[in-house]
Design brief:
Number of domains: 1
Order of helices and strands: HHHHHHHHHH
CATH superfamily: Fido-like domain
Strand content: under 5%
Radius of gyration: 17 Å
CATH topology: Fic-like fold
Structural class: mainly alpha
CATH architecture: Orthogonal Bundle
């Protein structure tokens, strides 16, 4: 794992030498793809082109649920908020997390947007059982303490991956846990100069993602999930380097 992390640092150093060639068109295309894939993981049926039309043209796609339209728009706004947090160097906090989640569920599940769940939940298709609701607030407090303690000692990619996994394992929200966790993961990556890590939402990639998460949640072995995130970051670095060169 350390050799891959060293390789990621080398790729990032190479990216830093050509970062001045980055431009709005590339960033907008990657951000659109990220919104599409993150929503796709959760079952959103909009295609990449339809996501573009909904977000950037304000169009309504016939035959597609209103919820899918709202998820696309909300994710775009949550991503913009996340980028503002990075640019303003605002510390990651519970308030930032709840604001992101509130944007994700805005107009979809109003009563639960930006609020920890008050009911027990099960994750469909998983053997893992999230903690009872009365434990959520305390475990989230512990999560932020862990982040504060580890933020300077862990490699940024490992920190981002673990924060992602720990958040979805607590499963603090009724809905929107995955999208929020992926935004928080990318907040950490962007803050340390890495590009957006776009976890894919096709069937095979989704199964790999969920299996790696479940392994971490049921056995405590996080290596598969950390490696998955590292591979995704590496692909993002190589792709952006190729574009800018």
């Amino acid at each position: 794992m350390q050799s891959q992390l060293d390789h990621l640092d080398q790729l990032k150093a190479q990216l830093d030498t050509v970062r001045h060639r980055d431009n709005d068109r590339i960033r907008q295309a990657l951000e659109l793809e990220y919104t599409y894939e993150s929503n796709r993981i959760e079952g959103n049926t909009l295609t990449l082109r339809e996501t573009d039309l909904v977000i950037n043209e304000g169009l309504t796609i016939g035959g597609k649920p209103l919820k899918d339209h709202l998820e696309a728009i909300n994710h775009r706004d949550a991503l913009d908020y996340m980028k503002d947090i990075v640019q303003q160097r605002v510390n990651l906090s519970e308030r930032v997390l709840l604001d992101l989640h509130s944007l994700i569920l805005r107009g979809i599940v109003r009563e639960n947007a930006g609020r920890y769940r008050q009911v027990p939940v099960l994750i469909r298709g998983s053997r893992f059982v999230p903690p009872q609701p009365y434990l959520v607030a305390r475990q989230m407090e512990d999560l932020f303490h862990w982040y504060e303690n580890e933020t300077k000692s862990l490699h940024p990619v490992v920190l981002a991956a673990e924060l992602h996994e720990r958040l979805v394992t607590i499963h603090p929200f009724i809905d929107g846990n995955g999208r929020t966790a992926r935004l928080i993961m990318n907040l950490i990556l962007l803050r340390h100069g890495f590009p957006l890590a776009i976890l894919k939402g096709d069937a095979d990639a989704r199964i790999t993602y969920y299996n790696a998460l479940e392994t971490a949640q049921t056995s405590g072995d996080k290596s598969d999930f950390i490696r998955l995130v590292a591979d995704t970051v590496q692909a993002a670095l190589e792709r952006l380097l190729s574009l800018l060169r």
